[in-house]
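Q: For a teaching session next week I want to show students how multiple molecules come together into a single three-dimensional assembly. I've collected the sequence lines for a complex. Could you give me the predicted C-alpha coordinates for the whole thing so I can convert them for display?
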Amino acid sequence: MNATVSVVVLLLVWGTFAGLDLATLLQGLLTRPLVSGSVTGVIVGDVEAGLRIGAVLELFALDVVPVGGSRYPDYGAATVAAVLSGAHTDWIESLGLSVGIGLVLARLGGDMVVVLRRINARTVGAKADLLAQGDARAVAEVHWAGFRHDIVRSALLAVLAVAVGFAVRALPALDPGTGRLLGVIALGGAFWAVMHGAVASARHERRWRWLVGGLAVGLVAALV
Amino acid sequence: MRGAVRSFFRLLIFQASWTYERLQGIGMGYTSAPLLEPLKDDPERYRAAVARSAEYFNANPYLAGIAVGAAAKGELEGSPGATVRRLRTALCGPLGSLGDQLFWIGVVPALTGAALALLAVKHNAWIVVGLVVVYNAIRLITTWWGLMVGLGSGLAVGAALAKSGLRATATRIGCAAGFAVGFALPLVAQWYAHPLGPPVLMAGVAGGGLGTLAALVQRRVFSAATVTPVVLAAALLLRWGFG
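A: Of course. Below is the structure for the complete assembly, covering every listed component.
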Protein backbone atom coordinates (compact mmCIF):
# COMPACT_ATOMS: atom_id res chain seq x y z
CA MET A 1 0.00 0.00 0.00
CA ASN A 2 1.33 3.43 -0.93
CA ALA A 3 1.14 5.93 1.90
CA THR A 4 0.44 8.85 -0.40
CA VAL A 5 -0.39 12.25 1.04
CA SER A 6 -3.96 11.96 -0.22
CA VAL A 7 -4.46 8.60 1.54
CA VAL A 8 -3.08 9.96 4.82
CA VAL A 9 -5.23 13.10 4.59
CA LEU A 10 -8.35 11.08 3.80
CA LEU A 11 -7.67 8.76 6.74
CA LEU A 12 -7.21 11.73 9.08
CA VAL A 13 -10.37 13.43 7.83
CA TRP A 14 -12.41 10.24 8.07
CA GLY A 15 -11.03 9.37 11.52
CA THR A 16 -11.91 12.85 12.79
CA PHE A 17 -15.39 12.75 11.27
CA ALA A 18 -16.06 9.29 12.70
CA GLY A 19 -14.96 10.57 16.13
CA LEU A 20 -17.37 13.50 15.94
CA ASP A 21 -20.20 11.15 15.05
CA LEU A 22 -19.78 9.34 18.38
CA ALA A 23 -21.85 11.96 20.24
CA THR A 24 -21.32 15.47 18.93
CA LEU A 25 -22.43 15.42 15.30
CA LEU A 26 -25.36 13.44 13.87
CA GLN A 27 -24.78 10.09 15.67
CA GLY A 28 -25.55 8.39 12.38
CA LEU A 29 -23.61 5.11 12.85
CA LEU A 30 -20.52 6.51 11.09
CA THR A 31 -18.44 5.79 14.18
CA ARG A 32 -19.53 2.13 14.24
CA PRO A 33 -16.67 -0.25 13.37
CA LEU A 34 -18.58 -1.82 10.49
CA VAL A 35 -19.01 1.57 8.82
CA SER A 36 -15.70 3.12 9.83
CA GLY A 37 -13.87 -0.06 8.81
CA SER A 38 -15.55 -0.24 5.41
CA VAL A 39 -14.77 3.39 4.59
CA THR A 40 -11.17 2.93 5.73
CA GLY A 41 -10.96 -0.18 3.56
CA VAL A 42 -12.10 1.84 0.55
CA ILE A 43 -9.57 4.60 1.32
CA VAL A 44 -6.62 2.21 1.60
CA GLY A 45 -7.79 0.07 -1.32
CA ASP A 46 -8.55 -3.12 0.62
CA VAL A 47 -12.30 -3.33 1.14
CA GLU A 48 -12.19 -6.94 2.36
CA ALA A 49 -9.83 -6.02 5.23
CA GLY A 50 -12.19 -3.18 6.13
CA LEU A 51 -15.19 -5.49 6.21
CA ARG A 52 -13.47 -8.38 8.03
CA ILE A 53 -11.83 -6.28 10.75
CA GLY A 54 -14.80 -3.93 11.01
CA ALA A 55 -17.21 -6.84 11.44
CA VAL A 56 -15.22 -8.34 14.35
CA LEU A 57 -14.95 -4.97 16.10
CA GLU A 58 -18.67 -4.46 15.46
CA LEU A 59 -19.39 -7.59 17.52
CA PHE A 60 -17.52 -5.93 20.41
CA ALA A 61 -19.41 -2.67 19.83
CA LEU A 62 -22.75 -4.48 20.07
CA ASP A 63 -21.99 -5.00 23.77
CA VAL A 64 -21.96 -1.23 24.35
CA VAL A 65 -24.99 0.88 25.29
CA PRO A 66 -23.75 4.50 25.11
CA VAL A 67 -26.09 6.07 27.65
CA GLY A 68 -25.82 9.31 29.60
CA GLY A 69 -22.73 9.66 31.71
CA SER A 70 -21.45 6.13 31.21
CA ARG A 71 -17.92 5.66 29.88
CA TYR A 72 -18.02 4.02 26.47
CA PRO A 73 -15.35 3.29 23.85
CA ASP A 74 -14.88 5.32 20.67
CA TYR A 75 -14.49 2.84 17.83
CA GLY A 76 -14.35 5.39 14.98
CA ALA A 77 -10.67 6.26 14.66
CA ALA A 78 -9.70 3.04 16.45
CA THR A 79 -11.13 1.05 13.55
CA VAL A 80 -9.16 3.24 11.14
CA ALA A 81 -5.95 2.11 12.90
CA ALA A 82 -7.07 -1.51 12.97
CA VAL A 83 -7.89 -1.66 9.26
CA LEU A 84 -4.81 0.34 8.26
CA SER A 85 -2.57 -2.06 10.19
CA GLY A 86 -4.13 -5.11 8.55
CA ALA A 87 -4.77 -3.90 5.00
CA HIS A 88 -3.03 -5.62 2.09
CA THR A 89 -1.81 -8.45 4.32
CA ASP A 90 -3.14 -11.97 4.64
CA TRP A 91 -6.13 -11.13 6.85
CA ILE A 92 -6.08 -14.57 8.49
CA GLU A 93 -2.72 -13.75 10.01
CA SER A 94 -3.26 -10.07 10.81
CA LEU A 95 -6.85 -10.12 12.12
CA GLY A 96 -6.00 -10.70 15.80
CA LEU A 97 -3.37 -7.99 16.04
CA SER A 98 -5.58 -5.51 14.17
CA VAL A 99 -8.53 -6.19 16.46
CA GLY A 100 -6.29 -5.85 19.55
CA ILE A 101 -5.06 -2.45 18.34
CA GLY A 102 -8.63 -1.37 17.65
CA LEU A 103 -9.80 -2.34 21.14
CA VAL A 104 -6.97 -0.52 22.90
CA LEU A 105 -7.44 2.68 20.88
CA ALA A 106 -11.22 2.55 21.30
CA ARG A 107 -10.75 2.56 25.06
CA LEU A 108 -8.31 5.44 24.83
CA GLY A 109 -10.84 7.35 22.70
CA GLY A 110 -13.47 6.76 25.38
CA ASP A 111 -11.12 8.08 28.06
CA MET A 112 -10.57 11.17 25.93
CA VAL A 113 -14.34 11.75 25.91
CA VAL A 114 -14.24 11.98 29.71
CA VAL A 115 -11.49 14.62 29.51
CA LEU A 116 -13.48 16.48 26.82
CA ARG A 117 -16.54 16.64 29.07
CA ARG A 118 -14.49 18.06 31.92
CA ILE A 119 -13.06 20.72 29.59
CA ASN A 120 -16.63 21.54 28.48
CA ALA A 121 -17.61 21.90 32.14
CA ARG A 122 -14.87 24.51 32.59
CA THR A 123 -16.25 26.47 29.63
CA VAL A 124 -19.71 26.32 31.17
CA GLY A 125 -18.30 27.45 34.52
CA ALA A 126 -16.60 30.44 32.92
CA LYS A 127 -19.95 31.60 31.47
CA ALA A 128 -22.13 30.51 34.39
CA ASP A 129 -23.30 34.04 35.23
CA LEU A 130 -24.34 34.80 31.66
CA LEU A 131 -26.10 31.45 31.37
CA ALA A 132 -28.02 32.12 34.57
CA GLN A 133 -29.09 35.50 33.16
CA GLY A 134 -30.49 33.80 30.04
CA ASP A 135 -27.94 35.18 27.57
CA ALA A 136 -28.74 33.26 24.36
CA ARG A 137 -25.40 34.28 22.82
CA ALA A 138 -23.52 32.73 25.76
CA VAL A 139 -25.50 29.50 25.34
CA ALA A 140 -24.51 29.36 21.66
CA GLU A 141 -20.86 30.17 22.44
CA VAL A 142 -20.58 27.42 25.04
CA HIS A 143 -22.25 24.93 22.74
CA TRP A 144 -19.96 25.68 19.80
CA ALA A 145 -16.93 25.65 22.11
CA GLY A 146 -17.88 22.06 22.98
CA PHE A 147 -18.12 21.28 19.27
CA ARG A 148 -14.62 22.68 18.67
CA HIS A 149 -13.23 20.76 21.63
CA ASP A 150 -14.52 17.51 20.14
CA ILE A 151 -13.00 18.36 16.75
CA VAL A 152 -9.64 18.64 18.52
CA ARG A 153 -10.20 15.39 20.47
CA SER A 154 -11.28 13.48 17.37
CA ALA A 155 -8.42 14.89 15.28
CA LEU A 156 -5.83 13.97 17.92
CA LEU A 157 -7.22 10.47 18.10
CA ALA A 158 -7.21 10.22 14.30
CA VAL A 159 -3.56 11.32 14.13
CA LEU A 160 -2.65 8.72 16.76
CA ALA A 161 -4.68 6.04 14.96
CA VAL A 162 -3.02 6.70 11.60
CA ALA A 163 0.43 6.80 13.22
CA VAL A 164 -0.18 3.51 15.05
CA GLY A 165 -1.60 1.93 11.90
CA PHE A 166 1.46 2.82 9.82
CA ALA A 167 3.84 1.89 12.66
CA VAL A 168 2.35 -1.61 12.91
CA ARG A 169 2.60 -2.01 9.14
CA ALA A 170 6.32 -1.28 9.40
CA LEU A 171 6.85 -4.15 11.87
CA PRO A 172 7.85 -7.60 10.63
CA ALA A 173 4.83 -9.82 9.93
CA LEU A 174 3.83 -12.37 12.56
CA ASP A 175 4.55 -15.99 11.77
CA PRO A 176 1.40 -17.69 10.37
CA GLY A 177 0.80 -19.84 13.47
CA THR A 178 0.91 -16.88 15.86
CA GLY A 179 -1.23 -14.78 13.55
CA ARG A 180 -3.91 -17.47 13.35
CA LEU A 181 -3.85 -17.99 17.11
CA LEU A 182 -4.39 -14.28 17.71
CA GLY A 183 -7.21 -14.28 15.14
CA VAL A 184 -9.00 -17.10 16.93
CA ILE A 185 -8.58 -15.34 20.31
CA ALA A 186 -10.00 -12.10 18.86
CA LEU A 187 -13.01 -13.94 17.45
CA GLY A 188 -13.61 -15.72 20.76
CA GLY A 189 -13.60 -12.34 22.53
CA ALA A 190 -15.94 -10.90 19.90
CA PHE A 191 -18.48 -13.69 20.42
CA TRP A 192 -18.20 -13.25 24.17
CA ALA A 193 -18.97 -9.54 23.77
CA VAL A 194 -21.89 -9.88 21.37
CA MET A 195 -23.55 -12.67 23.35
CA HIS A 196 -23.15 -10.69 26.56
CA GLY A 197 -24.79 -7.69 24.90
CA ALA A 198 -27.58 -9.75 23.34
CA VAL A 199 -28.43 -11.65 26.53
CA ALA A 200 -28.18 -8.58 28.78
CA SER A 201 -30.59 -6.73 26.46
CA ALA A 202 -33.10 -9.61 26.46
CA ARG A 203 -34.79 -8.50 29.65
CA HIS A 204 -38.20 -9.84 28.76
CA GLU A 205 -39.19 -13.30 27.67
CA ARG A 206 -40.33 -12.37 24.16
CA ARG A 207 -36.95 -10.97 23.20
CA TRP A 208 -35.29 -14.08 24.63
CA ARG A 209 -37.42 -16.27 22.40
CA TRP A 210 -36.56 -14.18 19.36
CA LEU A 211 -32.84 -14.33 20.18
CA VAL A 212 -32.88 -18.12 20.55
CA GLY A 213 -35.04 -18.41 17.43
CA GLY A 214 -32.59 -16.25 15.48
CA LEU A 215 -29.68 -18.38 16.63
CA ALA A 216 -31.50 -21.55 15.57
CA VAL A 217 -32.47 -20.20 12.14
CA GLY A 218 -28.96 -18.80 11.64
CA LEU A 219 -27.45 -22.15 12.53
CA VAL A 220 -29.65 -23.92 9.99
CA ALA A 221 -28.79 -21.29 7.35
CA ALA A 222 -25.07 -21.70 8.08
CA LEU A 223 -25.27 -25.49 7.80
CA VAL A 224 -27.30 -25.37 4.59
CA MET B 1 -44.02 26.92 14.12
CA ARG B 2 -41.33 29.54 13.60
CA GLY B 3 -37.82 28.23 14.18
CA ALA B 4 -38.76 24.55 13.97
CA VAL B 5 -36.44 23.85 11.01
CA ARG B 6 -33.49 25.58 12.69
CA SER B 7 -34.24 23.73 15.89
CA PHE B 8 -34.33 20.43 13.96
CA PHE B 9 -30.85 21.02 12.52
CA ARG B 10 -29.57 21.98 15.96
CA LEU B 11 -30.88 18.66 17.27
CA LEU B 12 -28.26 16.98 15.06
CA ILE B 13 -25.52 18.51 17.25
CA PHE B 14 -27.53 18.26 20.45
CA GLN B 15 -24.77 16.66 22.55
CA ALA B 16 -21.82 18.85 21.45
CA SER B 17 -21.52 20.56 24.84
CA TRP B 18 -22.19 17.55 27.11
CA THR B 19 -20.89 17.98 30.67
CA TYR B 20 -21.19 15.95 33.86
CA GLU B 21 -22.95 18.85 35.60
CA ARG B 22 -25.70 19.85 33.15
CA LEU B 23 -25.42 16.79 30.88
CA GLN B 24 -27.29 17.87 27.71
CA GLY B 25 -28.57 21.11 29.27
CA ILE B 26 -26.58 23.53 27.11
CA GLY B 27 -27.52 21.55 23.98
CA MET B 28 -31.15 21.79 25.02
CA GLY B 29 -30.77 25.56 25.43
CA TYR B 30 -29.05 25.99 22.07
CA THR B 31 -31.69 23.87 20.31
CA SER B 32 -34.60 25.66 22.01
CA ALA B 33 -33.32 29.16 21.17
CA PRO B 34 -34.94 29.47 17.70
CA LEU B 35 -38.28 28.35 19.13
CA LEU B 36 -38.14 30.94 21.91
CA GLU B 37 -37.49 33.91 19.61
CA PRO B 38 -41.15 35.06 19.60
CA LEU B 39 -40.62 35.92 23.28
CA LYS B 40 -37.97 38.52 22.42
CA ASP B 41 -40.61 41.26 22.55
CA ASP B 42 -40.63 40.73 26.31
CA PRO B 43 -36.89 40.65 27.14
CA GLU B 44 -37.34 39.63 30.77
CA ARG B 45 -39.57 36.69 29.92
CA TYR B 46 -37.27 35.72 27.04
CA ARG B 47 -34.16 35.72 29.24
CA ALA B 48 -35.89 33.67 31.93
CA ALA B 49 -37.01 31.11 29.33
CA VAL B 50 -33.50 30.89 27.80
CA ALA B 51 -31.93 30.44 31.25
CA ARG B 52 -34.37 27.62 32.08
CA SER B 53 -33.82 25.95 28.70
CA ALA B 54 -30.08 25.59 29.38
CA GLU B 55 -30.43 23.96 32.80
CA TYR B 56 -29.79 20.29 33.57
CA PHE B 57 -31.34 17.90 31.07
CA ASN B 58 -30.71 14.35 29.95
CA ALA B 59 -32.56 12.05 27.56
CA ASN B 60 -31.87 9.88 24.57
CA PRO B 61 -30.61 12.38 21.94
CA TYR B 62 -32.88 10.99 19.21
CA LEU B 63 -36.01 11.67 21.29
CA ALA B 64 -34.81 14.89 22.93
CA GLY B 65 -36.77 16.92 20.36
CA ILE B 66 -39.96 15.90 22.14
CA ALA B 67 -38.80 17.70 25.31
CA VAL B 68 -37.38 20.62 23.33
CA GLY B 69 -40.68 21.18 21.56
CA ALA B 70 -42.89 20.59 24.60
CA ALA B 71 -40.90 22.91 26.88
CA ALA B 72 -40.72 25.64 24.22
CA LYS B 73 -44.47 25.48 23.65
CA GLY B 74 -45.01 25.70 27.42
CA GLU B 75 -42.86 28.84 27.52
CA LEU B 76 -44.64 30.41 24.55
CA GLU B 77 -48.04 29.74 26.09
CA GLY B 78 -46.96 31.53 29.25
CA SER B 79 -46.86 28.52 31.59
CA PRO B 80 -45.17 29.26 34.93
CA GLY B 81 -41.41 28.66 34.95
CA ALA B 82 -41.71 26.04 37.71
CA THR B 83 -44.18 24.07 35.59
CA VAL B 84 -41.85 24.07 32.58
CA ARG B 85 -38.98 22.95 34.83
CA ARG B 86 -41.07 20.10 36.22
CA LEU B 87 -42.01 19.05 32.70
CA ARG B 88 -38.35 18.89 31.61
CA THR B 89 -37.39 16.93 34.69
CA ALA B 90 -40.32 14.56 34.30
CA LEU B 91 -39.42 13.86 30.65
CA CYS B 92 -35.76 12.95 31.32
CA GLY B 93 -36.45 9.42 32.58
CA PRO B 94 -39.06 8.27 30.06
CA LEU B 95 -37.33 9.79 27.03
CA GLY B 96 -34.00 8.33 28.13
CA SER B 97 -35.29 4.86 28.83
CA LEU B 98 -37.60 4.69 25.82
CA GLY B 99 -35.02 6.11 23.42
CA ASP B 100 -32.32 3.75 24.63
CA GLN B 101 -34.66 0.78 24.21
CA LEU B 102 -35.76 2.00 20.81
CA PHE B 103 -32.33 2.82 19.40
CA TRP B 104 -29.33 1.54 21.36
CA ILE B 105 -30.76 -1.91 22.09
CA GLY B 106 -33.35 -1.88 19.31
CA VAL B 107 -32.76 -0.30 15.92
CA VAL B 108 -28.93 -0.36 16.14
CA PRO B 109 -28.53 -4.11 16.86
CA ALA B 110 -31.45 -4.97 14.56
CA LEU B 111 -29.92 -3.22 11.56
CA THR B 112 -26.28 -4.09 12.28
CA GLY B 113 -27.26 -7.71 12.94
CA ALA B 114 -29.04 -7.83 9.60
CA ALA B 115 -26.07 -6.15 7.89
CA LEU B 116 -23.61 -8.60 9.45
CA ALA B 117 -25.71 -11.58 8.33
CA LEU B 118 -25.88 -10.22 4.78
CA LEU B 119 -22.15 -9.41 4.77
CA ALA B 120 -21.29 -12.92 5.91
CA VAL B 121 -23.10 -14.26 2.85
CA LYS B 122 -22.54 -11.60 0.19
CA HIS B 123 -19.26 -9.88 1.28
CA ASN B 124 -20.38 -6.64 -0.37
CA ALA B 125 -19.58 -3.16 0.97
CA TRP B 126 -22.84 -1.76 -0.46
CA ILE B 127 -24.60 -3.54 2.40
CA VAL B 128 -22.86 -1.10 4.75
CA VAL B 129 -24.01 1.84 2.62
CA GLY B 130 -27.57 0.52 2.87
CA LEU B 131 -27.19 0.22 6.65
CA VAL B 132 -26.13 3.86 6.98
CA VAL B 133 -28.87 5.16 4.67
CA VAL B 134 -31.68 3.21 6.37
CA TYR B 135 -30.48 4.05 9.88
CA ASN B 136 -30.12 7.75 9.18
CA ALA B 137 -33.53 7.89 7.51
CA ILE B 138 -35.04 6.41 10.70
CA ARG B 139 -32.94 8.72 12.87
CA LEU B 140 -33.89 11.91 10.99
CA ILE B 141 -37.59 11.04 10.70
CA THR B 142 -37.73 10.22 14.42
CA THR B 143 -36.00 13.49 15.30
CA TRP B 144 -38.42 15.58 13.21
CA TRP B 145 -41.43 13.60 14.44
CA GLY B 146 -40.35 14.07 18.06
CA LEU B 147 -39.96 17.81 17.64
CA MET B 148 -43.41 18.07 16.05
CA VAL B 149 -45.02 15.94 18.80
CA GLY B 150 -43.47 18.20 21.44
CA LEU B 151 -44.45 21.42 19.70
CA GLY B 152 -47.95 20.12 19.05
CA SER B 153 -48.71 18.93 22.56
CA GLY B 154 -46.77 21.23 24.91
CA LEU B 155 -47.52 20.43 28.54
CA ALA B 156 -49.80 17.57 27.44
CA VAL B 157 -46.83 15.75 25.93
CA GLY B 158 -47.20 12.84 28.37
CA ALA B 159 -50.58 11.94 26.92
CA ALA B 160 -49.25 12.37 23.38
CA LEU B 161 -46.37 10.02 24.16
CA ALA B 162 -48.70 7.44 25.67
CA LYS B 163 -50.82 7.51 22.49
CA SER B 164 -47.80 7.41 20.17
CA GLY B 165 -47.22 3.66 20.47
CA LEU B 166 -43.49 4.21 20.99
CA ARG B 167 -43.28 1.69 23.83
CA ALA B 168 -44.93 -1.06 21.80
CA THR B 169 -42.67 -0.19 18.85
CA ALA B 170 -39.60 -0.41 21.10
CA THR B 171 -40.68 -3.88 22.26
CA ARG B 172 -41.25 -5.06 18.70
CA ILE B 173 -37.91 -3.66 17.50
CA GLY B 174 -36.23 -5.28 20.50
CA CYS B 175 -37.55 -8.67 19.38
CA ALA B 176 -36.33 -7.99 15.83
CA ALA B 177 -32.93 -7.01 17.26
CA GLY B 178 -32.73 -10.26 19.24
CA PHE B 179 -33.56 -12.26 16.15
CA ALA B 180 -31.20 -10.35 13.84
CA VAL B 181 -28.20 -10.66 16.16
CA GLY B 182 -28.94 -14.33 16.86
CA PHE B 183 -29.36 -15.04 13.16
CA ALA B 184 -26.12 -13.26 12.25
CA LEU B 185 -23.83 -15.06 14.69
CA PRO B 186 -23.67 -18.54 13.11
CA LEU B 187 -23.29 -16.98 9.66
CA VAL B 188 -20.47 -14.69 10.84
CA ALA B 189 -18.77 -17.65 12.55
CA GLN B 190 -18.99 -19.59 9.31
CA TRP B 191 -17.60 -16.63 7.35
CA TYR B 192 -14.43 -16.65 9.47
CA ALA B 193 -14.34 -20.42 9.97
CA HIS B 194 -14.03 -21.05 6.27
CA PRO B 195 -10.34 -20.12 6.11
CA LEU B 196 -9.46 -20.32 9.82
CA GLY B 197 -11.01 -23.72 10.41
CA PRO B 198 -12.70 -25.42 13.40
CA PRO B 199 -10.81 -23.43 16.09
CA VAL B 200 -12.97 -20.44 15.16
CA LEU B 201 -16.13 -22.41 15.83
CA MET B 202 -14.76 -23.60 19.16
CA ALA B 203 -13.71 -20.05 20.07
CA GLY B 204 -17.15 -18.81 19.03
CA VAL B 205 -18.96 -21.36 21.17
CA ALA B 206 -16.64 -20.83 24.16
CA GLY B 207 -16.74 -17.04 23.86
CA GLY B 208 -20.49 -16.98 23.29
CA GLY B 209 -20.99 -19.26 26.29
CA LEU B 210 -18.87 -17.05 28.52
CA GLY B 211 -20.75 -13.95 27.42
CA THR B 212 -24.11 -15.62 28.01
CA LEU B 213 -23.05 -16.82 31.45
CA ALA B 214 -21.69 -13.39 32.42
CA ALA B 215 -24.95 -11.73 31.36
CA LEU B 216 -27.12 -14.30 33.13
CA VAL B 217 -25.34 -13.98 36.46
CA GLN B 218 -25.39 -10.20 35.92
CA ARG B 219 -21.83 -9.80 37.03
CA ARG B 220 -19.21 -8.30 34.83
CA VAL B 221 -15.88 -7.85 36.53
CA PHE B 222 -14.22 -7.46 33.15
CA SER B 223 -15.74 -6.92 29.73
CA ALA B 224 -14.68 -8.87 26.66
CA ALA B 225 -13.25 -5.64 25.23
CA THR B 226 -10.94 -5.39 28.26
CA VAL B 227 -9.94 -9.04 28.50
CA THR B 228 -9.32 -9.70 24.81
CA PRO B 229 -6.36 -7.32 24.32
CA VAL B 230 -4.76 -8.72 27.50
CA VAL B 231 -5.15 -12.32 26.28
CA LEU B 232 -3.86 -11.29 22.84
CA ALA B 233 -0.78 -9.67 24.39
CA ALA B 234 -0.17 -12.68 26.65
CA ALA B 235 -0.46 -15.08 23.70
CA LEU B 236 1.92 -12.94 21.67
CA LEU B 237 4.50 -12.88 24.47
CA LEU B 238 4.19 -16.62 25.06
CA ARG B 239 4.65 -17.37 21.36
CA TRP B 240 7.70 -15.10 21.20
CA GLY B 241 9.05 -16.58 24.45
CA PHE B 242 8.75 -20.14 23.23
CA GLY B 243 9.39 -19.32 19.57
